[in-house]
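Appendix C: a fully annotated inverse folding record. The material below is reproduced so that readers can follow the format used throughout the book. The structure is listed first as tokens, followed by the designed sequence.
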């Protein structure tokens, strides 16, 4: 087993330079970032210079045919997750692909099948799973402290958090708005904690009320004239085991808080909120709210990248799997389909 991982980066934007590259660097001698590729080749060049990466390219294919790589991070807009991931897997690389898995279920399925055929890891950038809160609560759940989790809520709401950069408001490039961008994080976190139950039916509604007009922006000023995604998505998922999950996500909504990222779980023994962690139980004829007096804090992106590197070098397999990526994509796309038709969608 190699003791050094040769890594390539696809897409030299915010998440690559803010999370992937610095956290690969923190792995020290175990990782060498060999190359970066971006369709905007000047961006690839600037990124290579800024982070001391020896090679840069104008496309993923050029990078894969020119550089010797073991693993690739896919950090492009959502539309290019699938095509870049397939190319990297077929070139014999492990892949850490940013969330969401893809734009369509067919793409996510092909990505999973290709990873399996190639015998390579494909994992997704669901960094909240690697947070201390989620990991600690997972231990409570494994010990049966919540019992049977039959109800959950996933919340990813921003008051006026329409991104003023990137392509987050472009449906063609992203596939949607807050549901596929931030709702997907809390949905994945809830499903992970629930043990990824098989979904049965979804019912969704989307709105475009605030994004298409000028207004106050807490994340910069956005291009409201070309805003083509939903600004709010709500939905309910029923699982085959009878459990249900309610989801709310918005880039902009008239709410009191600036933003809220939260997962709530309700089981027949206990319940919990995840951010910050709080566990609810009934004990000794008393209703108890348990909160950590101290919990070590950590950077969940750093843990995500370090664990991907570990897996590629022979350590434990990634906790976010291609099959879960397919299930998540079925739910997301099912919610969008339901919102469009106005009827529940059987998955
Ligand atoms: N995990 C998280 O918390 C998190 C946070 C932000 C973004 N993301 C995800 O990361 C991805 C990128 O987001 P970002 O904020 O870095 O966007 P960005 O716009 O800052 O950067 C994207 C880069 O990809 C390049 N690009 C576009 N098409 C390409 C292609 N076909 N091949 C190579 N490069 C290409 C663009 O030129 C740009 O430099 C998105 O999928 C987003 O959902 C995840």
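Designed amino acids, in order:
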């Amino acid at each position: 087993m190699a003791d050094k991982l040769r890594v390539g980066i696809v897409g030299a934007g915010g998440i690559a330079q803010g999370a992937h590259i610095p956290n690969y660097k923190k792995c020290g001698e175990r990782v060498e970032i060999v190359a970066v590729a971006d369709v905007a080749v000047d961006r690839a060049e600037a990124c290579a210079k800024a982070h001391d990466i020896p090679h840069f390219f104008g496309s993923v294919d050029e990078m894969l045919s020119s550089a010797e790589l073991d693993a690739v991070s896919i950090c492009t807009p959502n539309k290019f997750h699938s095509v870049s991931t397939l190319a990297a897997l077929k070139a014999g690389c492990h892949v850490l692909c940013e969330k969401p898995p893809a734009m369509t279920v067919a793409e996510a399925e092909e990505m999973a099948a290709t990873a399996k055929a190639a015998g390579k890891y494909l994992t997704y950038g669901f960094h909240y799973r690697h947070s201390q809160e989620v990991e600690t609560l997972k231990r409570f759940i494994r010990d049966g402290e919540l019992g049977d989790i039959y109800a959950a809520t996933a919340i990813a709401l921003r008051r006026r958090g329409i991104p003023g950069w990137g392509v987050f408001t472009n449906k063609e490039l992203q596939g949607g708005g807050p549901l596929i961008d931030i709702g997907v994080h809390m949905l994945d976190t809830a499903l992970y904690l629930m043990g990824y139950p098989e979904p049965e039916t979804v019912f969704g509604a989307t709105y475009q009320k605030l994004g298409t007009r000028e207004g106050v922006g807490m994340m910069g000023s956005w291009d409201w004239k070309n805003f083509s995604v939903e600004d709010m998505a709500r939905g309910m998922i029923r699982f085959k085991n009878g459990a249900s999950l309610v989801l709310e996500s918005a880039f902009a909504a008239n709410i009191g808080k600036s933003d809220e990222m939260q997962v709530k779980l309700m089981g027949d023994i206990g319940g919990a909120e995840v951010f910050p962690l709080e566990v609810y139980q009934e004990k000794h004829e008393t209703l108890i709210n348990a909160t950590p007096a101290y919990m070590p804090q950590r950077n969940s992106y750093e843990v995500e990248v370090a664990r991907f590197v570990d897996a590629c070098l022979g350590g434990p397999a990634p906790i976010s799997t291609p099959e879960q990526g397919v299930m998540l994509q079925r739910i997301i796309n099912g919610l969008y389909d339901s919102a469009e038709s106005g009827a529940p969608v059987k998955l």
